[in-house]
Fold:
Amino acid sequence: MPTVSFTTSGALQKSALRQANERLVLNSIRRHPGISRAEIARIMALSSTSVTFVVNRLRKNRLIVEQKLGNGSHAGRPPTALRIRTDAMWAVGVEIAQPTSRVVLVDLAGNVKKQETVPWQVSPELFLHKLHSTIRKVAQPCRSETMLGVGVSMPGTIDKASGRVIAAENIGWFGVDVGRLLRRRLRWPFFYENDANVSALAEHWFAPLESDRFRYFVYVRLRTGVGTGVVVDGRPLHGVSSAVAEFGHVMLYPDGRPCSCGNRGCWEQYASEGALLRSYQELGSAKRKNETPIDSETLIQLARAGDKRALKALRTTASYLALGMVNLVAALNPQAIILGEPMVSAWDLVEETIREELRKRVPPYALSDLRVLPSQLGADSALRGAAALPLAHYFTRFDHGKEDALPNRVAIEAHV
Ligand SMILES: [Zn+2]
Structure:
């Protein structure tokens, strides 16, 4: 929680301060639905006068609702519960992925209100044209003044400002102007982010309160490749060209399997969902070589039903996954490593393999503070994270980004 202090000097606009303070309180109500005015005052270290001022403005602007709880004591007014008005604002989330991309409309609390899918097409132009019309369709019921924007999750190395995919080897996109094609004739703000980073953002943004303590963690996305999103102090880490934390291409074996990046033996060639399915194929007998490929969901069902080949493929892949996690721990010493699908669905089958490998290879002092856990959002993490991009901008816009001229901690008392 922000400790309130007056850290500005000079000409910070009073209205900007007021708005920033309102967002801080609004975000607190979002994180703690049903919170009372007194609790806000306590956890944000504010006077009751300040809280009353801000809460009344939020009510007047129809961003929150306040419900009475009982009659209260004779000594004071009845206690009340504050909640954000979830239909006050809307956002669109887009996940670009093979074989199916998804577009959702979410309310201010991130609840999904509408969802559409878009099948993959080889031509990026045709695919993005269809995606563009689907975004318009999904957002159509919302008045433009209530639309916070569109968040787009994309694979590969991207230019966050323009929404250009610089290189996404696993889907064969190089220099594709996703942003330009999606923004056409749409006036809302667009936000772009790499899929592993948005997945990490989703874990942070939608996390239950008890996992609030994870402010420095790594999300490992396991699809065709392996993507890693690193969150530092609650925000995704970006390099100078957004190509930071490409741990999927950290080499495990110099003469190993060829990788789409041009190198050999990269972690993603052994630990991704694609590697899991290949491992299953390779474990088949010669006469089965032409069998129809299965998906990871079926593979996990087979393993659960006692299929030794499926179980071996899962545990071999989990073992390789742990090898790369050893590198993550050595490089970053994070609080937590959160794993995505398909390991979420197979967690009871692979957890011990992963933990045993880590125990063998990571010093006890580095392992003792590390939490390793499956994603709570499962296959929806990138999609939910994409929708969270405009929401996070709205709730915390005075904390970072182009408003960096403003202080991180604003003087909530200063304007009342
Ligand atoms: Zn590679």
Notes: Confidence is low (pLDDT under 50) at residues 1-9, 399-416. The CA atoms of residues 203 and 416 lie 35 Å apart. The radius of gyration is 23 Å.
